Amino acid sequence: MANDYNFAASLMRILSEKYPTKESIYEKLIYLQSRLCMPKGTEHFMSDLHGEYDLFLHIINNCSGVIREKVDNVFGDYMGEEEIAEFCTLIYYPKEKIAQIKSQGRDTPAWYRKNLARLVKVAKYMSYKYPSFKMRDLIPNHYETVILELLNTHPESADEQKIYYEKLLNSIVEINSGEDFIYAFTALIKRLAIHRLHLVGDFFDRGDRPDAILNLVMNYSAEVDIQWGNHDILWMGAALGSEVCIAAVVRNSLHYNNTDVLERGYGISLRPLTIFAANLYPEENPIRAAEMAILMIMLKLEGQLIRRNTDFKMDSRLLLDKINFDDMTINIAGQNYKLNGIFPTVNKNNPCALTDDEQEIIENLRQNFLESANLQTHVDFLYKKGGVYTRHNGNLLFHANVPLNEDGSFKKILFEGETYSGKNYFDYVDRRARRAYYEKRQEDLDFMYFLWCGLISPLAGREFHTFERAFIDNKDVWKEPADFYYNLIDDAEICDKIFEEFGLDSSGHIINGHVPVRVRKGESPIKAGGKAVVIDGGFSTPYHEKTGISGYTLVSNSRGLRLLRHQKIADVKTALAENKDIESTAETVEILSRRMTIGDTDHGQGIRDEIIGLHKLLLAYQSGTIQPKN
């Protein structure tokens, strides 16, 4: 009890340093209690971006269509469709649009005044969720005073206000700062549209610019959290020096023909590999030859990893030693299959051993990965902002799956002599992935590869059949076993069990990606009556034909939850030339019976805790227990 009293007294003394007078407490309490009543900020959820920078950039610039909705609400009654489209393009791409306007000779003082006035109206309309001090934080530096003055002036209320407002706009244009203020206003509007951005995994692979996406996210103004995807964890493992992760990363980049991210984005040279591969497979084109060479290195390293990590339960992937080199067949699960490839570097007596040349190739690549400053910066960011899962405002976010048995019970998984399941398995995975970052022990680097492709990995939940797809024509063996989660998540009782396991109320939502929703075939992303939402809509171009759409954004605002289905996304050139915008359809997931306030959020709970502490300090001041400063 004495320790508790001393701790509480210490907290009061610390709090009194921040609020040394009763008046300072009055001011803060009034603000905090009022803040609880304001509408909660808008959250956007996206997943499986897979390097598609142009698509991501456009969605971030138009805030998944939210900005167009706001512009329609403000100007829909007295601006035509073409005029609205051009104004929205100005908000999305101000620098490029102004350059276009200048080239057309339309950059007159009247044009600047008109568009600045429009931007002021949109910003006013969107700012109601934010207190004045927060608005100052959102406005780009050096523009706060003038922009706040414009936002707080009401020209419709009195002639004096109108004169003052017009003088502000005219002065901006007269001193040739209209362009700069348009940049500032458009940045502000985008910041007002998205309060928090949730990225539910898989920045990497397939598309060629994950590095550009991460650069954009690192400099993004909204709050950001990340749930690691299996493609992310693979690159993270590679950046930490895991040779098998490096081989898989290089193989994926070659397979999807997006080596630019390695060579230009991260400065990783593939030249030694391509020279080596050209000698091994002289009849193949250079990309295909390099892919075949690195695939064999990967399979050998994978075999070594499986043998030294029995906990991974990946023995079924030990296939190189099952090859019959006399008739070029392989025995899988008691059945023989004809192989369609050649294996010039495989030692029949020790199939998983690298040749001296292969060892030199992988060591060279490892050094490249470790020395890539840009890659190391991005991986540091993924560790700082990311994790295996996130609980936020009653929702549970993770990339892939919660490992389940067929009956819906949590799968018990043994690692390092301890058994894990459900939430404590997620916590263990998170801890061990971070241990790999700090300690870089071989067993933890191996664990990163397991997380990429293990059947019992919560970031994958699927047994990869890479060997079968590469060397066997019979597609019966291509099918990859998956965790029962993917079939059971449409069951409301299973969702409730997962909510309880993670300490959440069943009124929330499970939000994950990983498995593309095939809308074209009638699949729905909304599961279990809205308790779960799968938001992998196929951002990656190779998936567009499979899914029939160009991705999803889930939007949570104070009124409910909507899923935006992006049908077609214009590239930047088309957007500028034709004022084309994103084509999206909205599906309501949930409509709230009352508007959700900050008091209903996790942040609101933090505010209430702060209010309790301030009331205690005020009582201490009033009772004389602590003396306030004059």
Give the key terms:
7-stranded mixed beta sheet, 630 residues, 5-stranded mixed beta sheet, alpha/beta, 17 strands
Describe the structure.
52% of the residues lie in helices and 11% in strands. The model has no long low-confidence stretch (mean pLDDT 89). It is α/β, with parallel strands linked by helices and 630 residues long. The protein contains 27 helices and 17 strands. A seven-stranded mixed sheet has the order 7-3-2-1-15-16-17.
Quick description:
By secondary structure, this protein is α/β, with parallel strands linked by helices. It has 27 helices and 17 strands.
Number of helices: 27
Helix content: 40-55%
**Measured on Cα atoms, how large is the radius of gyration?**
28 Å
How far is the first residue's CA from the last residue's CA? Answer: 33 Å
If strands are numbered along the chain, what order do they take across the biggest sheet?
A: 7-3-2-1-15-16-17
Q: Please give the largest β-sheet.
A: 7 strands, mixed
What's the pLDDT, averaged over the residues? 89
| Proportion of beta-strand residues | 5-15%
E-strand count = 17
Low-confidence stretches: none
What's the layout of helices and strands?
Elements: H1 2-18, H2 22-35, E1 43-46, H3 53-62, H4 66-75, H5 81-92, H6 94-103, H7 109-126, H8 132-138, H9 144-151, H10 159-174, H11 178-193, E2 196-199, H12 210-218, E3 223-227, H13 230-240, H14 243-255, H15 260-265, H16 271-280, H17 286-308, E4 323-324, E5 329-332, E6 335-338, H18 356-371, H19 373-385, E7 386-387, E8 389-392, E9 395-398, E10 413-415, E11 418-420, H20 422-439, H21 442-453, H22 466-471, H23 485-488, H24 492-501, E12 510-512, E13 526-527, E14 532-534, H25 541-547, E15 552-557, E16 560-568, H26 572-578, E17 583-591, H27 602-623
Helix pairs in contact: 2-27, 4-5, 5-6, 7-10, 7-11, 12-19, 13-14, 13-19, 13-21, 14-17, 16-17, 20-21
